[in-house]
Amino acid sequence: MTKVDLTVNIGKLKLRNPVMLASGTVGYGNEISEFADLSKLGAIVTKSLSLKPRKGNPPQRIVETPSGMLNAIGLANVGVEEFIKDKIPFLKQHDVPLICNIAASTVEEYVECTKILDSEEIIKAFEINVSCPNVKDGGLQFGNDLKAVAKVTEAVRTVTNKTIIIKLSPNVSYISEFAHVVKDSGGDAVSAINTLVGTSFNIFTRRPKIHNVNGGLSGPAIKPLALAKVLEISRKVEIPIIGIGGIMNWKDVIEFMIVGASAVQIGTLNFIDPTSSVKIVNELEEYCEKNNYKNISDLTASYII
Ligand SMILES: Cc1cc2nc3c(=O)[nH]c(=O)nc-3n(C[C@H](O)[C@H](O)[C@H](O)COP(=O)(O)O)c2cc1C
């Protein structure tokens, strides 16, 4: 049988396969490296980085739900400087493209973070998080506002030539309008979706199970919604899409690619089985072989409606 070409392109970024690990679910790569051979993956995306370190929200920050989980971590992270000093040396030992996810409260902070990280050769792309539902400052304040998304994208574009991916929120009426703005403002790709706003209460104490009250819902419960958002973007805007939301196995990856994703990210599944992402890459290859796809990228937006 001929060898399957699993490579995919996202802007200037060429990945060995479409499987990436999603922001916030593998730390800075260190948390998963003893379970998964990082060199077998398409890319890893860091936990959201901010200019200064953030403690995040007080606990309780995570609660399990039927078919998923709610989290309100609140963007806890070491900050860009410590990331460069303490985390990048570890990542340099692994042959895997690194995508830095950035979160900020102002346009200037997004720009400053990107500028500081841009000179690090190991960083191949930036994923700009304008869609975190769990913080008071920033997050959805940007992701819900077309003009703010345009401003952030344009501003970040002025300080880097690397691939810029804007991570979109599903907590909007028409996600394709946001993808349109990203394209028009110089962004190279979008990732869809971040988590959905949700909550959960203890019926005996009548108190929220999460200290922040609201959290972001992830996991299999959100997959149909995420697929619909990816399909909406794919039908309306010509821009590479990274599909995210509830991927639990290789079949889910194929489904995301069919509705329009060029690549995918795996999130909540890393907590259930941290070895799954590498297995999924192998299973994707088998699927392509059996179904005569020479290039996995031929699956992207191959839907028949
Ligand atoms: C515990 C946890 C922490 C997360 N932290 C971040 C983050 O820092 N930045 C970000 O852009 N997304 C973050 N996310 C969202 C994921 O990257 C992903 O978009 C979302 O979980 C949907 O994918 P999934 O259903 O496969 O988990 C986080 C998700 C979880 C579960």
Provide a descriptive summary of the structure in words.
- This protein has 305 residues and is of the alpha/beta class.
- The protein has one domain: TIM Barrel (Alpha-Beta Barrel), CATH 3.20.20.
- Helix content is 30%, strand content 19%.
- It has nine helices and 14 strands.
- The strands form three sheets. The protein has an eight-stranded parallel beta barrel with strand order 3-4-7-8-9-10-13-14, surrounded by six helices. The chain has a four-stranded antiparallel β-sheet with strand order 5-6-12-11, with no helix packed on it.
- Strand 13 (241-244), helix 7 (250-258) and strand 14 (263-266) form a beta-alpha-beta unit.
- Helix 2 (107-118) packs parallel to helix 4 (146-157), helix 4 (146-157) packs parallel to helix 5 and helix 7 crosses helix 9 (276-290).
- The protein is globular, with a radius of gyration of 18 Å.
- The two termini are 31 Å apart.
- The mean pLDDT is 95.
- Bound molecules: flavin mononucleotide.
Please write out the topology.
Blueprint: E1 8-10, E2 13-15, E3 19-21, E4 43-45, E5 62-65, E6 68-71, H1 80-92, E7 98-102, H2 107-118, E8 123-129, H3 140-143, H4 146-157, E9 163-167, H5 175-184, E10 189-192, E11 196-199, E12 214-218, H6 223-236, E13 241-244, H7 250-258, E14 263-266, H8 269-272, H9 276-290
The structure holds flavin mononucleotide.
